[in-house]
Structures are given as C-alpha cells and as structure tokens.
Amino acid sequence: xxxxxxxxxxxxxxxxxxxxxxxxxxxxxxxxxWRERSPAHEQAAGEVDRLWALLGQVEQPANPRTLPPPRRRxxxxxxxxxxxxLLLLALWLPQGAWLGWYADxxxxxGEVRTVELEDGSILTLNGATAxxxxxxxxxxxxxxxxxxxxLQVAKDASRPFIVEAGxxxxxxxGTRFDVDYDGRDVVLAVTEGQVQASDxxxxxxxxxxxxxxxxxxxxxxxxxxxxxxQQLAWQRGKLVFRAQPLSEVFAALExxxxxxxxxxxxxxxxxxxxxxxxxxDPQAVLRAIESNLPVRLVRLPGLLLVSRG
Length: 309
Fold this sequence. Notes:
It is a single chain. This protein is of the alpha+beta class. It folds into three domains: 5-58 and 76-92, no CATH class; 99-227, Jelly Rolls; 237-308, Phage tail protein beta-alpha-beta fold. It has helices at 5-18, 25-35, 39-59, 78-92, 228-231, 246-253, 282-292; strands at residues 105-106, 113-116, 122-125, 130-135, 140-152, 161-165, 168-172, 176-181, 186-192, 194-198, 205-208, 211-216, 219-220, 224-225, 238-245, 260-263, 272-278, 295-300, 303-308. A hairpin with a 2-residue loop joins strand 6 and strand 7. Helix 1 (5-18) runs antiparallel to helix 2 (25-35).
C-alpha cells in the first residue's frame, strides 16, 4: 500500500519536533495520538522512523581503528540513501534556497530588486523570487518559478509578452500587472491596461485594470475587483492582512524571511490575522500571532513549527 504523501509530510514534521530538544510532554502525547489515529498514520510514522534510523547510521562517524574490511555496497541501499539525502534537504534547506541555482535572476528573502530588460520592460522582484526571461523576434517570455514580480511591460504590438507561472498563462503587448506564485496558487493583479489570462483547459479571459484573478488547483477562477492596498502592499514596503487565514499569512512571509514554516496542527491554518506591518519586519508579525492567537511557535534553525497553543 502506498503511503499518502501528506501523511508522510506530517510524520516528518512530528519527528523533527520530537527530536528538536524543545518538545514538551504535551507534544509527545499529541504525536502519539496522531500516530494512533489510523493504520495509514501508523504506516507513515513507521516509514519515517525507518528513514530516520538510516540517517542516524549514515551520520555516525566511523572509528578508523575499528573499520571492517571494505565490502561492496548492496544496490538495495541506493534508493534509501538517496531518500535520506532528500529528506535532509526537505527538512533543513531554507524555503526557496534552491531557486537561485537555475534562474536568470533570484532575490533573497527580504530583498527587493528592479531589473530592466533589453526591450525597456521593467521587472520589480519581491523577496524569495526567481525567474527567467527570453526576448526573441516573435515574442517575449518570462517564466516565474516562484515568488512575486511587478511587470511594467514596454509596448510592442509585434511581440507579445508572455508570463508563465505554474498553471497560469498571461499574454500582453504592453501594460502593468503583478504576478504572485507561491508554488501552488497564482494571483494576477492588473493595475494598468488589460491582459489575457488562461490555463491549460480554458480560453483566454480578459482581465482589466483594477481587477485580479486566482489560479487554484491548476484552474483559473472568476475575475474579482482588485484590492490593491492589500495585494500590492509590498510595493509600498508594507504587509496588509484583513482577516486572512494563518496559512496565507505565512505564505506572504516567505518573501521576507528564510524560515520554512511547518504546521503540526492543521486546525490552526484557518485562524484569522488582521493588521498592517512593515514588509522588512517579519518578526513583528510573529509576535502579533503569538500574542493574539492560540498558537505555539517553535523556532529551529531554518524551521518554524506551528501548533495549537
């Protein structure tokens, strides 16, 4: 039986907390209750237990005076060892740290950068953003791997400007708009002119100035009025939340902090946050969350664990 990937992720998160040195007795009881919730939960926890034990064997330093004679490593260990390496990366590599390895331009969390393309278009990248671009005779293309970018596209009717971000396809000849892609969902906010927006299964839809549209589960949603004060607050150095779920708040914080956020309790994801904060002060958001919501934040190197307080 194949283990559900979401349960594996939760099992890894419990394992990290229990071995962090900061887990309380209540955390241990909660982890035990989670594991006993169903056979599927037990299977996921068992798989992570075995992988964690393997990591311990891999990381133990060898004593050169007691090394056994060299022997050929069995091929059956190749996959577990590779999985162990991937697990370490998934748990400890800061969110988005790999983006700069292959993109034409990438920003660090908290960094805002402006780039002018050869055609005169101006791109302003929010923190933790990575993208490529190609300027050819027939068209101009930007591929947004992750993050948020404000695009002021130079007018050129002979060369359409295409933005690709996850499931989203956006086509313009010259206008200004903002695209935010968190690796799952996409938000398009148009501030000037008009763009054509689509996904793989839909016909292009016109989205005009002061309008926005979301892509969720790879499908484009209905066009809505743009709340520029909230959606584009980062361009003014602000973070604005209006009764937004905690999951969305932490997604927004990825632009300004390096910590990867892991929810140990799914019930806290929908807790609402309202407030206005400085874009470059994510700790102020965390302090407000701790002071006003029934949550507990455990800070680890590169990780922030969120559970019900």
